[in-house]
Amino acid sequence: MITLRGKNIYLRALEPEDLEFIHIIENDESIWEISNTQTPYSKFLIKQYLEHSQKDIFEVKQLRLVISSYSEEPLGMIDIFDFDFKNSRAGIGILIKDAAERNKGNGSEALQLLINYCFTHLNLHQLYCNISEENEASIKLFSNQGFKEIGLKKDWNYVNSSYKNEYLFQLINN
């Protein structure tokens, strides 16, 4: 795996030592809406996931990386999902775990590193993301990286007894 290094953060592959960090994130009900999670994950299941996380993106169609500070503190995760080699596209998702670490530029830097990786090393033609219309921070983050809103999916996600709309954003590598 190519190490993806930025000025303030770097992206790295998942390690067995990330078990507790991922367990906390996956079981944080406040972000279940973002990840479309419905139930908690056990440490056993996450450990199994970590054991298989080193499989090739061309085989499993996804890649999860840890966003890490240079002091080795994991700040969040960034994902490539629905990797479609034939059509040269993939989805991207990002999460900075602690609210206190957000709005410091780490998400922007991580997203830019991953975009460059996708276009340069994976030779993708386009990336996309799905963002709840209420998630203004993510809309701003992806828009600032050149993603364009291309559609609104009405009543797309059922959250807390009501339906919420979701935007589809896309970035095409020209």
TrEMBL record:
PROSITE patterns with a match to the protein in the record: GNAT
Origin organism lineage: Bacteria, Pseudomonadati, Bacteroidota, Flavobacteriia, Flavobacteriales
Entry protein name: GNAT family N-acetyltransferase
A Pfam cross-reference name: Acetyltransf_3
PANTHER family: GNAT-FAMILY ACETYLTRANSFERASE, SPERMIDINE N(1)-ACETYLTRANSFERASE
Domain N-acetyltransferase: 9-170
Domain of life, source organism: Bacteria
